[in-house]
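ping. complex inputs:
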Amino acid sequence: MSLPYTILILFIFSTSSSYLIPLAHSKIARLGISSKTLKNEPDGSTQKVDESDLKMYYFNQTLDHFTFTPESYMTFQQRYAIDSTHWGGAKANAPILAFLGEESSLDSDLAAIGFLRDNGPRLNALLVYIEHRYYGETMPFGSAEEALKNASTLGYLNAAQALADYAAILLHVKEKYSTNHSPIIVIGGSYGGMLAAWFRLKYPHIALGALASSAPLLYFEDTRPKFGYYYIVTKVFKEASERCYNTIRNSWKEIDRVAGKPNGLSILSKQFKTCDPLNGSFDIKDFLDTIYAEAVQYNRGPNFWVAKVCNAINANPPNRRYNLLDRIFAGVVALVGNRTCYDTKMFAQPTNNNIAWRWQSCSEIVMPVGYDKQDTMFPTAPFNMTSYIDGCKSYHGVTPRPHWITTYFGIQEVKLILQKFGSNIIFSNGLSDPYSVGGVLEDISDTLVAITTKNGSHCLDITLKSKEDPEWLVIQREKEIKVIDSWISTYQNDLRDLNMPV
Amino acid sequence: MSLPYTILILFIFSTSSSYLIPLAHSKIARLGISSKTLKNEPDGSTQKVDESDLKMYYFNQTLDHFTFTPESYMTFQQRYAIDSTHWGGAKANAPILAFLGEESSLDSDLAAIGFLRDNGPRLNALLVYIEHRYYGETMPFGSAEEALKNASTLGYLNAAQALADYAAILLHVKEKYSTNHSPIIVIGGSYGGMLAAWFRLKYPHIALGALASSAPLLYFEDTRPKFGYYYIVTKVFKEASERCYNTIRNSWKEIDRVAGKPNGLSILSKQFKTCDPLNGSFDIKDFLDTIYAEAVQYNRGPNFWVAKVCNAINANPPNRRYNLLDRIFAGVVALVGNRTCYDTKMFAQPTNNNIAWRWQSCSEIVMPVGYDKQDTMFPTAPFNMTSYIDGCKSYHGVTPRPHWITTYFGIQEVKLILQKFGSNIIFSNGLSDPYSVGGVLEDISDTLVAITTKNGSHCLDITLKSKEDPEWLVIQREKEIKVIDSWISTYQNDLRDLNMPV
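pong. complex structure:
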């Protein structure tokens, strides 16, 4: 890890490529609901999902809700989908479940998210899925090329604007279905989980409650968690196999040692079958870091990545003796698959989603994720705000505002402050998800509820259910739906008490 | 009233000129803490106030908190004042009282507002007064001329940006005084009262509570009050003198009758001693409307305007016989004073404050105030959104967003919704203030408290106290401070329970 710090991209979604984008001398990492890099993850785009009940719509959205300059009045088409099959109707004030999109296209969200369709029939709910501005088809300025061009166009991509978009669409949907009093529950995962929680805090008159899955809401400059992201990555590897953990721990020095030899980078390139020549040992190290981190973040059935990679690293093949880097490479093959060559920059492609997310990471979603001093299997390199800011400046010409998120959303002091003004939020976290270190892990009040599972991975609870789900996952989801049900019941009682039609 | 509708400008402050600005074929009316037009109102600029304990500061404020375009990073100097004389200090977590400026200069706020200095010593509070962006000296773009030039520069003038300004300054003040846990109570009147309530709802992690004085929070398109502004104006006149009420009621037709004669406008002009020739009878009618409305809005000691104007209207002078319009003119003299001539456009001067406020009225603060069908002493002319929007378009080239305030702040359903997520707000209203029709007049919960007084006028409770204050006013203020005190006590107990330093 020659890099001074890491920008963790919240891989919120879709299932095929990581968001690791080199940013000057640093990297951006991952948030998301499922991995895009690991070889056998079910991929949203190929998975068979019955979407016949879904209808697609486009909403004429305001570019800038918070100024009134002539430019702010520009509009763009925001995509959203509705499934009304199971809805109980306006007369019954039947609920609305709304999935708030994150840094991903609506298509991949629709493929991966199961919470709405798995629970819609039971709750007689209208199901709404909304695409986040600047992702998928939802592009201001007429095209992705224009929207993602520079800071002048990207400037309108941020959480506050996205939340105001959601507010406008949800009010529009209520009007469209002539239902004044249907309670809305918003759901999101990872960065989208933060949006869901923030939406409940900022628009409680629109959302009755929120399910914030794997949302690292406290992973900001003013509320840094005691243990960092890589602490959990390491812990999960160590618990899976002490030997595997030690092999990885020792590999970084070995990589540097080989790189330091004459022709060292060529040797490394051959060892790891890289498609392109290496610029430095950091190319390999970043690549390995990313796949280990993703292996933990999405460590779940049918692929238990950490077991897979550790089995490969620990194995003794019959015909030859493995050296240390052979073992590490065997781990790569286990995670990424057998390929003719390996693109160490596969996480860093300048796709539309990656560009948009890097912008968000460089403007307000500044998560101070680094290789902290705690016992991790990575060389120490704590997050460095100064170089992070410098990287963003040189990349986008814009200075991050690392205190803005806590200034605007302000959940710094959970017990003293949030407990007093917040309500109806479920913070769900798998404790084996590295992002859980930045999550709300304890109940704050009767209606600010933390639901954690020891073995849960990133956003697992809101993905499609399956017959192979372990019992603890079934129980977790059942708990969540019961809490949501209780919010809805209380609300319906309030309606009755106020003599409003139920 | 030939005019189809009225834009009521919330006269928030200072004490010398009304904000009646002609806007195409309509007019903008008034919000504010004291009248600027009526002849003997104490004027902030001349009133003697001991400000020796106040220190002035300038904060480097971000132009646009909600986008990250290069332009958004422009900054301007925002003026604020601090009085730390009575502050109990950081160790005691002594409270901060923060006055959130409205559409007025800090100077006039400092002169008129008494609530902070009248209660600061008792609460050992730090006193902070902040000037609203685009008013007084707080001008983006380097000068008022630039700032108020057109929609491109005025576009950054709105409530959400102003609240974010206040958040940034209050966090800065806490840092400056090294006090993490001093509770902040925000206070504002009229439009500033709305800001105070909204601030508590949107930044509850920064403000522990809010005193919203005479804030017509429900006077928006989606939450129109049953009775309008002019219903109260009429009611107060009628209760003061049925004869006076009838005279005014009959005067509009008489004005039109005279205007319809050959040379009618000249006759009217002479009758009312206007400085300039009249463009139509509406010049006189708008002028009269405004001074009657202000007479009610600021009807308090030492000047009881309604009694004054009605005494003049009802009087029978010894030497001559009054006709109807003589009586009406006598009322004008009683309110505005004896002048060589009367400027009927005195409310409509394009001062900086007036231009800025008209912009706000034309972008988001769209209050549907009209002459409704209820029994008023004015000819019926209900608010007409279409012509309001047309007026704004032709004036500023910008289309109002009349639903934005309720979308963003959303206190439409007070009992069903606000009761569940809001806390620690005092809504204070004088029921003789025409704006009280749009206020929250009933308790919503134990901590969302309505304090009303039968005879109170606009923002009276937060003005400087005086020995001549009636007992009900003394009691009202005492109630308010007790409620605030209870919030602070509860908070200090919470701090103790959490073992935080108190």
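The two ends of chain A are 59 Å apart (CA to CA).
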